[in-house]
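User: Fold this; tokens only.

Assistant: Input:
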Amino acid sequence: MRTVYWEKDIPRVVVSYLLHRVWPGVTWSPLSPVYVKDIPDPELPGPRWLRVRNRQCGICATDLSILYTKPSVDIALAPIPATDRIYLGHELVGEVVELGPGVTRHKVGDRVAMEARYTGSPNCHTQEIDPPCRHCAAGQTRLCENKALGRGPVGVGGGWSDGLIAHESEVWPVPQDLNDDQASLIEPSAVALHAVLRRPPRAGEQVLIIGAGIMGLLVLQAARIVSPQSQITVMARHPHQAEMAKRLGADQVLAGRDAAYGRVAEITGAKHYRFPLNRGMLLGGFEVVYDCVGKANTIVDGLRWARAGGTYVLVGIAFESLKVDLSPVWYQEVDLLGSQTFGVEDWRGRRAHTFDLVIEMMQEGALRHEGLITHRFPLAQLRRAVAAAQDRRSGAIKVTLDCS
């Protein structure tokens, strides 16, 4: 098995973190905590485990952040033992090729998408803990309180591999009427839908989506499905992102210098107040802000662009300590919400897993994938694929690896 993983080796992490700005190539050097290795195919470690042969996998911004060792060692999740080794690649579609005798959810030949191993963290189901914690019992496995216990075996391999070993609960069945491109977008689409359902927009409300990479464009589609009568503005950095946002139904697209306080005030009818040595402040603004970037600048601006009593949802995240102005949370009573991957949702009178909802939306044609995958590379050209995904000026929206 050829696989790529990041190891929490503190000396290597520190060296790579410090050198990356002056020597980006450190990522692929012997000094890096990133390993590209050929390892013997492991045996199935238990009766409820299975082997998957990968077909294709998207490259996510989270993958790139980990690959380039951008996460700071002082962020909250760094001490969690479950993050000691992270196999890169989670936007995966693969084929089941071997089953343990206790597997009941899948059969050989099934296509599957990765569901649980988002950052390498196990949960009560993958560790076969009974009874499970309250979150896993409710289907919210991303919030598992037992993820650091380290009971039993852990999966080997990720999406940036030619295959992987997984617990049966870590992968999700893919219907035959979805193609591989759609299947590889199930996971990021579920992230987007969950973010929107954290605070669904209502008819007539003004909605802002910060960022028009793949996540922003998927949040745009999810918001339009959830609330067709809301007014959606998207902030895009690059022209090809702005064009795709228009194609996917954004009411307003702000790009480049358009994305300024005055323009936001004009769209929302807010009052813009300026002050020396300050970004300014709006009274009025958007009812809901989905920040799909999660850097200091976007958090500071996004909170100031939210209407009093509005909601700011942190969808994307920079894995580093940030200096941000939280005064709008207090002064304007803005609700600050986090959105971490997906789980079980309340949707139109039923409880359903986000993956099931996304699959239904894809089957109905409501959630579109055409044009989102812009670049394809074989797994053997991983470094070229990573370079294309990193350089948004190349026209990339989603870069996908052919793992077959």
